[in-house]
Amino acid sequence: MRGATHAKWAACAAAVALAATACGGGSDSGGGGADGIVSSSWGDPQNPLEPANTNEVQGGKVLDMIFRGLKRYDPETGEAKNFLAEKIETTDSQNFTITLKDGWKFSNDEPVTAQSFVDAWNYGADVTKKQNNSPFFSDIVGYADVHPEKGDPKTKTMSGLVVKDPKTFTVALKEKFSTWPETLGYQAFSPLPKAFFTDHEAWLKKPVGNGPYTVDSYTKGTGMKLRKWDAYTGEDKAVNGGVDLKVYTDNNTAYTDLISGNLDLVDDVPAQQLKNVANDLGDRYINQPALIIQTLTFPLYDPQWSKEGMDKVRRGISMAINRDEITKQIFRETRTPAKDWTSPALGDKGGFSATACGEACSFNPTEAKKLIQEGGGLPGGKVSLTSNVDTGSHREWMDAVCNSVNNALGEGPVCTVNPIGTFADFRNQQSSFKLTGPFRSGWQADYPLIQNFLEPLYYTGASSNYGKFSNPEFDKLVDAANRESDAAKATGLFKDAEKILAEQMPSIPLWYQNGSAGYGERVSDVKLNQFSVPVYDQIKVS
What's the CA gap between 327 and 361, in Å, rounded? Predict the structure, then answer.
């Protein structure tokens, strides 16, 4: 997904610019008890909150509160469990019959039907709607008709989606995809009410979903207020009265507000505060493994990075990075040096490998310099790293990476940092393929499968393949893995595909990221799910 290019923060530092209640708890944070309002740090989403158009963390947090889909990932185990789906049946891992549970409604009182899903998926796939998550529907028969590579669509609906009755629809896939049902907890597959289509502009201003919260108001640059939906029928009813998401441009400011009692929850403790957090928060600090990896991706659409021999240069840059030192000095046990392109949270059976990257992810200045010289040298004799710098201590680690590279090569300041002020600007440049050097490409999994760490980022034309890596053998192995009904064999094929990444190095694995959060004395039962997102609906306010 959510290409978790992490935008954990986005706009609220100056009290003169915003009302005081935007940055602190204020009277609007609600009182104690069941009706209390949780206040939490946040960042403005890149795009309007359409489920098929949101593939970054901040928007994803909201969708997770206002929508429920066919499946939901267990907050503790990550297991994909049926939610709105009563059953998902198949005899061949290619044709599926989906039956919905009774009684589900949207917060505007519209019933959730099979048509709600089919209409939403057809909208998401439609090339004219320009939805970021369109490729998630590409496995469905008829996708090419609504989303051609060139020209106008032939039709508005995919032939592989058929409504049988209000509670039942069928899905025909182009190929066998044994784990396809496990992907259906991702928010791109959410249902949409008729109101989304009949008055789209009004819906975008105040999204209507079927989850435990409704959107009360949103002011860009300030925050969003979500309130408990009392008529929600799901088993995960909110135990609080709502959540105020407050926009910050500086996570240190958010942390200061937390310590002073003006904020209940910070869901990414800034690196500068890690030395203080145990003393400041005690057991109100959470630090746990998550399905997140941070990488540096190369813009292979730029000929200077994709010409012959550059695979050696890319590997050499990787070997010039002292991951152990950087994670210890900057991140203090909240990051672990990466050994592959997935996450330890998957486990060995799920596809994690501590050896996939091999020597390419080990610090070796001598070999790094040798490989870069053999590959023809850095393009133009230099390399520039790019990330937004409004969140996540990105400036600090980019400076540290460049220092490591410069020290390893011994040729002066050949590695420099190209900071971009805001996450939205960074994402816009990244998604329009305007970056000319390695760029941060953090990934927070959409669902707990090795497939999600590989296909969306490295398959030809995939939704988050911002480096435009393309390798026919990699694609072939991914296709074969998706068709394989034996989970262990499928994982093995994905690991074979990962070996190609180790050879070509389209991106450099940097480190695995823990979920880290801190919370105030006013709230309890604060947990992070496996994606490092707070389980907002279970937070209690005293």
Answer: 14
Query: Could you read off the pLDDT of 431-443 as tens digits, one per residue?
Result: 999 999 999 998 9
Tell me the CA end-to-end span of the chain in Å, nearest whole number: 34
Over residues 441-458, the mean pLDDT reads: 91
Q: Could you give the CA distance from residue 73 to residue 448 in angstroms, rounded to a whole number?
A: 8
Are residues 34 and 414 in contact, defined by beta-carbon separation less than 8 angstroms?
no
Q: In angstroms, rounded to a whole number, what is the distance separating the alpha carbons of residues 365 and 363?
A: 6
More confident call, 332 vs 361: 361
**Nearest-angstrom CA–CA distance, 178 and 488:** 12
Q: What is the pLDDT of residue 47?
A: 87
User: pLDDT tier at 151 (50, 70, 90 boundaries)?
Assistant: very high
| The token pair that represents 25 in the structure block | 């708890």
pLDDT higher for 14 or 230?
230
From 154, 77, 161, 146, select the one nearest 116 (Cα to Cα).
Answer: 161
Cα gap 196→194, rounded to integer Å: 5
Whole-model pTM? Answer: 0.80
From residue 172, alpha-carbon distances to 133, 206, 504 in Å are: 19, 33, 34
CA angle 384, 388, 393 (to 5 degrees): 95
Strand 37-42, strand 242-247: pairing: parallel
Distance, CA of 132 to CA of 125 (rounded, Å): 9
Q: What H or E segment, with its residue span, contains residue 489?
A: helix 487-504
Quote the CA–CA distance of 70 and 99 in Å, as a whole number: 9
